[in-house]
Amino acid sequence: MALRCVVKVGSVTNLSDARYAAGMGVEMLGFRVQENDENYMPAETYQEITSWISGTDFILEISQTSWQDLQNILEKYPCNALEIADENLLEMLIKNAETSENLPIKLLWKVKNKQIFTQKAENWRKWISFFVFSKTDINFCQELAEKYPILLEGDFSAVEVEKILAETSIKGFSLKGSAEIAPGLKDFDHLAEVLEILETE
Q: Which domain of life does this protein belong to (predicted)?
């Protein structure tokens, strides 16, 4: 299965969403790994879920944390990439990468402050795989998408997805998983509408 653009499904909380998304060709699965976050994923559950999945990158979604706490998280959660919202933490990671000329995992920047993006994006772009913006920022992103790899995050209808792909250079979409109705019982409608329209023929 292949999709017409890059898709990340974040806030994954269960194996059902993970397997469905991976089977549909989703490139990245995101997990909330900080205990105070909604949809927090314990390390043991994360390891169980990811052991069943292949062919997709595992992303740790970090809002704000210290350098030391991040190192502790990375020890418990083997991953392919980090999605960072905290610009100070992101700057520390990039400075460390510049010193060693290496970054062992990909970085996604979940942009909350457009002014900081304007100040930092050009210098940081070498280290950032994707810049993640809210769908409400689409007007801000339209011109920037010609230059930077941008994902739009939010809930999308099939019509919205087609319009964005046809009219912009946005690289793809960041969707969200949802809770199971009961263990093993899952409604995929919220993902299916978008993923099925993105399937290649």
A: Bacteria
3-class SS of residue 201: coil
**Taking a C-beta distance cutoff of 8 angstroms, is the pair 150, 171 a contact?**
yes
Residue 63 in tokens: 């809002």
Q: What element of type H or E holds 31?
A: strand 28-32
Q: Residue 66 corresponds to which tokens in the numbers above?
A: 């210290």
User: 148, 121 in Cβ contact below 8 A?
Assistant: yes
Q: Is 83 helix (H, G, I), strand (E, B) or coil?
A: strand
Domains in the chain, CATH or no CATH each = 6-198 (3.20.20.70)
Q: What residues have CB less than 8 Å from 198, skipping those under 6 apart? A: 3, 4, 5, 7, 161
DSSP assignment, residue 4?
S
Could you tell me the two tokens for 104?
Answer: 């062992």
**Rounded CA gap, 8 and 42, in Å?**
20
The owner of tokens 């509408």 is: 193
pLDDT tens-digit map of 101-130? 667 789 999 999 999 999 999 999 999 999
Supply the pLDDT for residue 130. 98
Indicate the pTM of the whole model: 0.93
Listed in sequence order, the residues at least 6 apart from 59 whose beta carbon sits closer than 8 Å to its beta carbon are 8, 10, 28, 29, 30, 31, 79, 80, 81, 82, 83, 108
